[in-house]
């Protein structure tokens, strides 16, 4: 197949099912979480299933299944957002294991867009994707609350994960059951 034909096929595959034909995408107002506002960390996940954790966190219950409290002496920050945080916002999360000296510098948010009832977060990741030990580096983006059916994660120009929210898949790998 000629090079141009392969390129067109790759783009068609990448964006297939993204939205109905003719539906233009719109930028979504968003804010990247900064400066570690909470005393917590993303819980370990089954790295045999995925080298990253992806989630669309819409409730405090979902948040508690992804994050674990990480209290330290004399710290005054809360362990997580109040329940009211999720009244008008939700979080799009990507977490990868990274070498400790680079934590916080490996993700570059490029944008958040929606088409119909689907949202796509696009970002660059400058670290290794094969690490299974080290510190966790997190990209956590706040977007307005909306009843999306699908979330797409595009890393370095490549679709790496799709969450089917309407089917009940709000995290991959599957988040920890409540209370564990």
Structure in a nutshell:
The chain is mainly beta and 180 residues long. 11% of the residues lie in helices and 38% in strands.
What characteristics describe this protein?
180 residues, 5-stranded antiparallel beta sheet, disordered N terminus, mainly beta
Describe the secondary structure blueprint for this structure.
Blueprint: H1 3-15, E1 26-27, E2 31-32, E3 40-42, E4 52-57, H2 60-66, E5 67-69, E6 89-98, E7 107-115, E8 118-125, E9 135-144, E10 150-155, E11 158-164, E12 171-172
Parallel strand pairs: 8-10
Antiparallel strand pairs: 1-7, 2-9, 3-5, 4-6, 4-12, 6-9, 7-8, 10-11
What does this molecule look like?
There is one protein chain. With 180 residues, this protein is mainly beta. The protein has helices at residues 3-15, 60-66, and strands at 26-27, 31-32, 40-42, 52-57, 67-69, 89-98, 107-115, 118-125, 135-144, 150-155, 158-164, 171-172. It is built from two helices and twelve strands; from the N terminus they run H-E-E-E-E-H-E-E-E-E-E-E-E-E. The strands form three sheets. It has a five-stranded mixed sheet with strand order 1-7-8-10-11, with no helix packed on it. It has a five-stranded antiparallel sheet with strand order 2-9-6-4-12, with helices on one face. The longest helix is centred in the first third of the chain and has 13 residues, at 3-15. 24% of the residues are buried. Mean pLDDT is 82; it is low at 3-22.
